[in-house]
Amino acid sequence: MAEEYPWDELEQGLRKSKEFRDAYGQADDAYKLGSRVRELRLAAGLTQKQLADSVSTSQSAIARLELGGSSPRLDTLARLSEALGGRLVVRIEVGSAA
Predict the structure, then answer these.
(1) Distance CA 90, CA 81 (A)
(2) Alpha-carbon distance 9 to 32, whole Å?
(3) What's the rounded Cα separation, in Å, for the pair 60 and 8?
(4) Residue (of 85, 88, 81) closest to 44 by Cα position
(5) Whole-structure pTM value
(6) Contact present, 69 and 30 (Cβ < 8 Å)
(7) CA-CA distance, 43 to 68, in Å (whole number)?
(8) Per-residue model confidence as pLDDT tens digits over 3-46
(9) Alpha carbons within 13 A on the beta-carbon side of 65
């Protein structure tokens, strides 16, 4: 029979893993991007379908993006920002500021 470990011990071990930290960071970035797109879409008074039509994609693709479940290409982000009345800004941070 496999050994059992309390979840908090397993979680602490996972958090020490570089792979875990990297994956968590990527998921957090995707969630923040999706939340921002949703916020801007709602402020513009658009439905997911309307936004999708204006950027030549599907409503389900917009839904996945807003939920943090996808990583869109740069050209898609540019079309999204234009459709939402904004401009795309890409920034690379290095070191502890990231």
Answers:
(1) 12
(2) 28
(3) 35
(4) 85
(5) 0.73
(6) yes
(7) 19
(8) 777 877 777 777 777 777 777 777 888 999 999 999 999 999 99
(9) 23
- Residue at token pair 């792979």: 19
Q: Which two tokens stand for residue 38?
A: 């949703």
Sign of CA dihedral 19, 34, 95, 91: positive
Residue 97: is its pLDDT beyond 70?
A: no
Round to whole Å and give the CA distance between 98 and 95. Answer: 6
Amino acid letter, residue 91: R
CA distances (Å), origin 81, targets 26, 54, 88, 91: 21, 11, 6, 15
Buried/exposed 80-92: b ≥16 CB within 10 Å, e otherwise = bbebbeeeeeeee
* CA angle at 34 for the pair 82 and 17, rounded to the nearest 5°: 135
Structure tokens at 87: 């401009």
